[in-house]
Write a structure and sequence with these properties.
With 160 residues, the chain is mainly α. Helices cover 59% and strands 0% of the residues. This is Transcriptional regulator.
Length: 160
């Protein structure tokens, strides 16, 4: 049985994976702000539907606070797991460049983080491999849609 891995457009894959990593960084750095329930009486006229059912705003707020926080934590745990499954160089590249501070640039990583330093071309090869693996793993978990990332027949012919 032969396993056929999909051919992915490198730029589209990089954009999609970088978007997922940016979302991770936002979730990690910006604290979740819980909604609060309004408990004071309001004197506005309220019109009910035919069933005269009103919503339970306290329950809705509590469910939102728990579910959104849990979803954010699950997303971050998934990204952490996917990154931990990469090879050592790929893991260092992704964690140092994309999961930490905003002001880290590619040249800082390949000149100062890697020991010994690597060339820009080697860095690009490592990043491309890491993003390909991450795209496959994130698509398995439903975080990235693979359809727009697949290289079309014309693009494959252009590549060689």
């Amino acid at each position: 049985m032969e396993l056929m891995l999909p051919e992915l457009d490198r730029r589209k894959t990089q954009t999609a994976v970088e978007a997922a990593l940016e979302k991770y960084r936002i979730y990690k750095t910006i604290a979740f702000e819980e909604r609060e329930v309004m408990v004071t009486a309001s004197y506005a006229e309220r019109f009910h539907g035919a069933t005269n059912v009103t919503g339970d705003s306290t329950a809705r707020t509590a469910i939102y606070n728990v579910d959104v926080q849990r979803a954010r934590q699950a997303y971050c745990d998934t990204i952490d797991f996917v990154v931990s499954r990469l090879s050592e160089k790929e893991r260092v590249l992704v964690s140092e460049r994309y999961l930490k501070d905003d002001d880290v640039f590619d040249y800082k990583v390949y000149n100062h983080v890697f020991d010994p330093p690597v060339s820009k071309d080697t860095y690009t090869k490592i990043r491309t491999r890491a993003f390909y693996k991450m795209a496959l793993a994130l698509s398995d978990r439903g975080l990235i849609n693979m359809e727009p990332l697949s290289a079309s027949r014309k693009e494959r012919q252009k590549l060689g």
